[in-house]
Amino acid sequence: MKDGAPARILVLSSRPDILQAVVAAAAEIDPPPEVRGLFGRPLNVLPTDLILVDVAEPRATMPYLHRRFGAASVLVALIDGAWVDRLGSALAEDWTDYLFHPLNAAELGFVWQKHTSPAEAPDLNLDVDESGHIRVVFPSRVRYQRAVVERVVVACRHLADLDRETAFRLRVTLGEAVANAILYGSGDRPGAVVRVSAKADADGLRVKVSDEGSGFDPDAVPDPVSAEGIGRPRGRGLFLLRQLADGVAFNETGNRVTLSFRGAPDPLVRIEPLLRRFAEVTGLRFRLDRLFEDGSQVLFDSWEDDEKPSGPPEVRETWPLGDAGRLRLVHEPASRGDAAATLLAGWIGAVAEGEQSRERLLARRLRRERVLAELEIARDLQLKLLPPPEDFRDLGRIAARCDPALSLGGDFYYLVRLADGCLGVMLGDVSSHGPSAALIMARTLSAVVLATGVEAEPAAVLDAMHGQLRAALDATEMYMTLFYGVIDPGRGELRYANAGHPYAYLLGSGGVRRLTALDPPVGVAAVRSYRQTRVPSAGETLLAFTDGLAELSDPLETPDSRVRRRIDRGDLDPEVLVAALFADSDDEMRLDDRTAVAASL
Hints:
This protein is α+β, with helices and mostly antiparallel strands. About 35% of the residues lie in helices and about 25% in strands. The two termini are about 60 Å apart.
């Protein structure tokens, strides 16, 4: 880093507990770097700074981060233990490195030292024998980890003809295994070394990493996605190995791990017997090469050693293989085998096209995994916008649940604490689901927060929200049913406005009262001002749910009759009501979001 510049770790996360954990872990680094947290504030970032990015943040995307901090910055994905099973998708964006939360201080120190130590490449002696056996022995030092991993992965990709996905899985797991060997095995004792070897055969690729430590018992490490292990700062690396490698095995001592990779079937390797047969039948002499930026791999050669042409052959054919280099066919001059050469070139060209299509499919799959991971992040954030019912338990018995049909949905509920012990209860259902509906839902939540902050009565709240949402609903051609009620225990009444929502009820010892719609849904028709009414509600329970919960397992039962059945059973407790609604709905065949809220003050 620059002379006189402070050593600094930047933490991009809106969670205070993550920032505090990084501060505590960084204090154990010698000398300890300065830790700063930010999101949304301008800051000049040095290229040598370590930037920890909470992948659950909405702006934790590579385009934004590269624009903000520059492509040369060290971006480390910080992944919560609850998200460890989605690490593969997160790493597919080519993060510089990764860490898990809860943080392990030793692992943070390892990543810090790896990315802030001098950049000169260490001297490595990578031995590759004629049988394709790769071996390297290196000092147990952090600065060797990156170079070892890159050198071994490149060698394995050429010798084992790995596809891009398998090479990605090898890079991540080998990096984890080498880091563990340095950090927990051999350590930094003088003379301590780590050994890596790799061998490819017909069954795939096997990579071994061994250290000089005392080892450990892998069966004693708790599963980090289990209830027992999710909050512990150990075991995530072992989980990662088992998720990304096709096989993981330890020796009896526990200081050597063997990673196995089957790899994807590669037609360029499997066609060798057919090429040999073609050469025997036609007598054509040819060679098939796979060309990489830093070298080439001979896939097949039908020339005998004493038949090699004195000069380069006259005819060459090449085909692009996307990110996997190029395929080149070199054969005899056309005059010595014109028809056979043409036939062979056309056949190999078809094989190359299939290989390129496979590369495109793989890229599409990785993009899809990233999109799914982002949707999962968005879903969690969307649900976190909804206020937890337990925050209002001092007012009475309250329960709520929202379950989108897809990763994102348009249903929502909202609870707001009002003056004089009153509670505001809102339930909304956007006419669609998926990302577009989720955006309308998010804007609606913003609107209700603003409206309930300045308006006390339900009709006035809906009037204010309508003004904020009308343009967005018109632009997306959507509409929304919306119920908002204020439970006033002091007056023993419920005041409510209902914009087209069909499933809102008051339940009590006197039976079921349906709270009918007073106005059309928001976005359907021009409404000058919304109406409201009041009904006595002392001791009664307010229940509202969306039409996703009206899709019943029993097609002969209506939502009203189901609610009345609950009354007959005496099920007036909000938690019992909400749980029963979800239990009765058809979960396997549902195509709509499901949301319910119930309150009794």
